[in-house]
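In this section we walk through a basic example: taking a raw amino acid sequence and producing a predicted 3D structure, encoded as discrete structure tokens. The instruction is simple. Fold the sequence below.
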Amino acid sequence: MPYDPQLVQPMRQELTDLGVTELDTADAVDSFMGSKEGTTLVIVNSVCGCAAGMARPGVKLALRHENKPVRVGTVFAGQDLDATARARAYFPDVPPSSPSFALFKDGELVHFVPRHQIEGQDAQTVAFNLMSAFDQHCASGQSA
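The resulting token sequence is shown next.
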């Protein structure tokens, strides 16, 4: 059973306030992922403490970086069940993990950060992990 929408709304808003595209249906995920050119970050959001204390604050810091993905979208695990399953279908060789981050370049998964690399870290460490991947895969000319 999905989480109460009112419960997760503030957690969603932390990302949408940054300009992250909310993907709440499987069709929305497919449409978002349909453009394979350039770089795309998919955030699997969650209600857990590591999402609140590390993942979302880490994304916020990382998205201030000079190099960043062209597109950034999010699904909410435990709330948008079909959308989350569809997003995970784009990285089928990776076990389900929430929160997590999947970075694609030209439609190919090039970097994945699972929950076990988020929990126990601080937001700056999570951000550094993402920014390092952005530097490697997101040319400054591609940034949004």
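Looking at the output, two observations stand out. Helices lie at 5-16, 26-33, 49-62, 81-89, 123-137. The radius of gyration is 14 Å. In the next section we compare this with other chains.
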